[in-house]
Amino acid sequence: MTFPVLSNMTSPALLADWFRPGASTTAHYVDNLFYVISVICVFFFVLIIAMMAWFMWKYRARPGHREEHTAHHNNALEITWSVIPLILAIWIFFQGFVGYVAMRNTPQDAYEIEVIAQKWSWSFVYPTGAISPELHVPKDQPVKLILSSRDVIHSLYIPAFRVKMDCVPGRYNEMWFEATTASDEVKDPTWDNDQNNPELKYTDGSATYDEAAATEGYDLFCTEYCGTSHSSMITKCIVHDEAGFQEWMKKAMDPRSQGTPVEVGKQLYNRRGCAQCHTIDGTDRPGPGGPSFKGHYGETVTFKDGSTGKMDDNYIRESILNPQAKIRQGYNPIMPTFQGQLNEDEIFALRQYIRSLNDEEVNDWAPKEGEEGEEAEGESEEASADGPATPQEESAGDAEDDDEAPATAEQPATTDEADNADPEETESDD
Question: What are the residue boundaries of the Cytochrome oxidase subunit II transmembrane region profile domain, all occurrences included (predicted)?
Fold first, then answer.
């Protein structure tokens, strides 16, 4: 990001626009007041400096000068330079208060999204249950954000909307905005440079946020220092038209539509904050970091309490949902829980991604509950031939068995069965 004053020193447009265009219904409150205050400050700065320079020249000491008695007070002058600034201060306060009230009174029909901040990633939870690391919102519809934090104080800031609010542990804050410009109508001019910026890359060379979204989204930052990777807590706000938002929501509800389990797992690794502590090149980060995703699968590891355990699928799942249950020796218990933030498909995808990094056999998506027919049966036979079922597959199989049991019990009796029925039972039923 460049500073407009410095970048415009060689340009005649010294008063060029300092902000990127506002993209929300309340952005003008901030912009207008900022420019008015800036003009007032520049005017009085130039006036006072000019008067100081003139007074220093006019009343400079001269040879033979004799001090003369001068007035100690000038009521008219003192009232003038007190009343005028007071009027300006009251007017600025009133204008700021009008904008504050507008930005704090959330419309009743606002679309609610829960924001969960944690070191060092964002999770946006939608009423449908979808969870995304980027903020997706509909255009021309009020959006209410309910913000909280799982660890330390963070602060959500979207410059294009001129909104900012702290995320505080143990409490909920609220803010709202209404986006007026869809993301595909704008493009971040700094993105082309950011693609080559090593500070915005993860260990595998991928960007810290979705590149496709980044080319057409609005910047979303954490603006409250929250630890070593605070500067990487960056994502995007994507504004869709109504049809585009519904299409995105449908896709977000089904991780399977986004690729293979390994592909989805890699996306989650980059976009859920895993890369901040866990490498994928076999390099461990003892102390404030975590063990690498590569090189440990299948190993027997030692925990802080002296017990041991095998790093397998069950251990990975437990570490995602309850990371404080088993702390590896040599590491600190700093990982936050992802309980309620990742569904079973996403956890399965992360497990398969870790397996792929360790040259282990990788499983495909298990059939969804309720799938029937030869295709589902063929996939089941193929899974059996490839190796033992994953915990997710076993759970899906158990659920299908449970569903089939009552269905069998409720099958109507055939004609032969009815003819052979015990007469006493028939009379009893009657």
Answer: 1-107
pTM: 0.61
- Domain range for 331 is 263-365
Structure tokens, 417: 């069965």
Closest CA to 391 of 316, 296, 299, 313: 313
| Whether 332 and 244 share a structural domain | no
State how far the Cα of 365 lies from the Cα of 256, in Å rounded to an integer.
7
**Among 252, 25, 255, residue whose Cα is nearest residue 134:** 252
Q: What is the CATH number of the domain that holds 200?
A: 2.60.40.420
CATH code of the domain in which 330 resides:
1.10.760.10
> Do the strands 154-158 and 218-222 form a parallel or antiparallel pair, or are they unpaired?
antiparallel
Taking the C-alpha atoms of residue 414 and residue 271, their distance in angstroms, rounded to an integer, is: 57
Using one digit for the tens of pLDDT, what is the confidence trace for 56-98? 988 888 888 777 777 778 888 889 989 999 999 999 999 999 9
| H-helix segments, 180-293 | 191-194, 211-214, 242-252, 261-271
pLDDT, tens only, 289-314: 788 888 788 888 888 888 888 888 88
CB 190 within 8 A of CB 1: yes
Alpha-carbon distance of 75 to 257, in angstroms, equals: 77
Report DSSP state, residue 10: T
- Domain end call among 365, 383, 407: 365
The total number of structural domains that make up the chain: 3
